[in-house]
Amino acid sequence: MASDSPPPSGLVEFQPTMPNYVYSPLSSAEAEIRLLAVEFNAKHVLRRINAPLLVGSLKKYNLPVPTLSRTQRMIRSARLPTFFALSYVWGDPTRTHDIIIDDKRLRITENLYTALRELQPSSLGFIWIWADAICINQDDLAERSAQVLLMREIYHSAADVKIWLGPSNENWMRCLRFISNLTEGSFISDVDSLPNAPTMDNNVEEMIMKAVMIPSGALARGVIGFGQSIIEVLDILDPPGLDEKAEMVQEEDGELSLHQETIEKFVKWKPPTRYLKRVENESFVEVADLIDRVFIQNCTWFERMWVVQELGVADNATIIASGGKSVSWSNLIRCVCYLHYTLHAPVKSIRNVIGMEKIRQGWNGRKRQPLRDLIRECRYRRATDPRDKIFSLLGLMGDKLNVYLKPDYSKSVREVYANAALHFIAQSESLDPLCSWQTLGRQNELPSWVPDYSLDQNLAPCPLVAIDGGSSIYNSSGHHHRSKYSRMDVAVTHESWSHLRTVGLCIDLVAVLSDPLQHSEPFGYAERLWNSTIRAAEEYLGGLTNEVKACLEGISSAVEKYSEYWTSLGDSSKDLDATDHLFKYTQSLDRDSKESIVTDGKALYLESIEPNLSPHDNYIVDAYAQTLLCGRKSARERISKEDIRIFMNLGEATNSRRAEILTTASNAFEAGMRQRSIAITRNGYIGAVPHNTHSGDFICVLFGCTVPVVVRKRGQEYLFIGESYLHGFMDAEALVMEMKGELNEQDFVLT
Hints:
Elements: E1 32-38, H1 42-45, E2 55-62, H2 70-79, E3 84-87, E4 96-101, E5 104-109, H3 110-119, E6 127-130, H4 132-135, H5 141-148, H6 151-157, E7 160-164, H7 170-183, H8 202-212, H9 218-237, E8 247-248, H10 258-267, H11 273-278, H12 284-297, H13 306-312, E9 317-320, E10 326-328, H14 329-342, H15 350-364, E11 367-368, H16 371-377, H17 388-391, H18 413-428, E12 491-493, E13 499-513, H19 523-536, H20 546-569, H21 578-587, H22 591-600, H23 615-628, E14 632-634, E15 637-638, H24 641-648, H25 655-673, E16 676-681, E17 686-690, E18 698-702, E19 709-714, E20 717-723, E21 725-726, H26 733-739, E22 745-750
Parallel strand pairs: 2-4, 3-6, 3-7, 7-9, 8-11
Antiparallel strand pairs: 1-2, 1-6, 4-5, 9-10, 12-13, 13-16, 13-18, 13-22, 14-15, 16-17, 17-21, 18-19, 19-20
Helix pairs in contact: 2-9, 7-12, 7-14, 10-15, 13-15, 14-15, 19-20, 20-23, 20-25, 21-25
């Protein structure tokens, strides 16, 4: 156990021959960590001298982990010094600085070095810091794996999590000033609060030097440590976030979601009038855009995986900037919510910020999300090591840690991802967790059935399977015992984790496909391509009558209008409600267009499907319309023929109802067609399949999966391509065909 004595004071000269720092091992069984003690240099803070070398010392401490008794936790908490945990991005590995640790040299990235420099003025006396690149031996895989399991406790035990977004520029400081003035009413840095350096005499400086260099940092710990000690005692009496007291929550339709709870909490906040006066000369729309671009979109910190846990478990979090200026994380949330939801000044990336706060609120409220949900919530984030897409979220999840999820950096990416997939299969007792993931650009080394969790899931098709723990709206493999797929059913062969044995029914072979589209293409363009593909597949559909062609043309005309409406909104407006959607759209139209769209609705009018269509013709028209939407009105609701009739006859609706229909239908068409191709099978079935489907692929129902899937035969095995919508096979119809002897059960070994 380390003492709290400070590191050596005074300037240390760097010697070229100085040896590199060598780490001594940590005891993972004792939850041992290292903390960095950095000395405070008053002359540097008061701008009297240029920055000397950064000098510090690494000491070992034992964390008060939840598995200990209350007495043991209290003892460890008392011995643990008050420390800050740093949340940052490593930065360019080629730009480095040397620091001196216990008279040895340690090389760190420039971004970390700058962050440590900015932390120095924020405290009196020497300060204790935890930063992963320094406090973990990055060359020791076993230590890295063990420390991953302690990261949650490290950031939760910190007095404050200091968020370093990077060096500040003029725009960055303008944003910080606005946030601070709006939420705190002032903008004063720690350095600004000290006496003015140029007018300070040597006696004053000497007094400050004596005060701040008290051994063991008593001054700092007297102010900060007392409050923290009280918090730690309360934590021990009623520890927050203990796994045994936390519950795993899954967002069900009709309930107030964590996302809604988070938004409502901050939307209710209003700044005092005196604070508003401080920012009255600012353009709120301009500042909202600036915060979005400077703070969120162009900031690599918001892209990093590990910061989700680092922020998520923090009791307190502060964004620090150059010159000792700072603003609390909570005030950033208040500011962006006030701008976006109250003032309707769009912050385009607000979901990224709210998503992080949702996780933080849930964790501190003992409402843990499943790992699968967390991965999707962090779908846009990046990790230098692909394994961290899993490992970085383990401390936040509601899932119980098991052999599949235990962090181990000696395992390959394929094994880590395969283990995660097997965990999700066993947890859900289904194959649904293999579906609805981005496939374009996936790593070649992964087995086809293992999702590539490293990809940006924003580019994936809208999932057909339930992804939030709710019940699926489809039922392709039925409800009997074969729909359950437990761990005992998971037959993985070969040590390479490359094969998964499944059982199911092969429905048909893909004969005709539409060409894949770019992600940015509007769904109106996709529909025209799909429409022409249907016409080109006439031989497989048994011919197309003039009545069918007229109906297809009417559908195309209606979808095009919805697409124009949806495209006109832009990404920043799609969080608005239906009335705001309609208002924004009509504002962009000329008078004649407004009359057409809003007043009489003729531009979206389509004659009702002819009641005298033959059953064959009716199937084609109905199958095509349903396939455009993948058979659903929303993620939680199947589409009905009456819904489609309403979508195609918007003119019958009242103005208020029309706004809702415009938004609902546009969302449904976008979700149905994005990143999918239309497919016509050899026997004339119509469906929507993944973009990477080929002619000759098979559409199957695998037992334990609620939707049909596309597979590609390769020798005696199959490649898993992805989920699909196949009209007429979403509700166990394939099982009925099996009972009639029309389909036969077979093995599908996925590789």
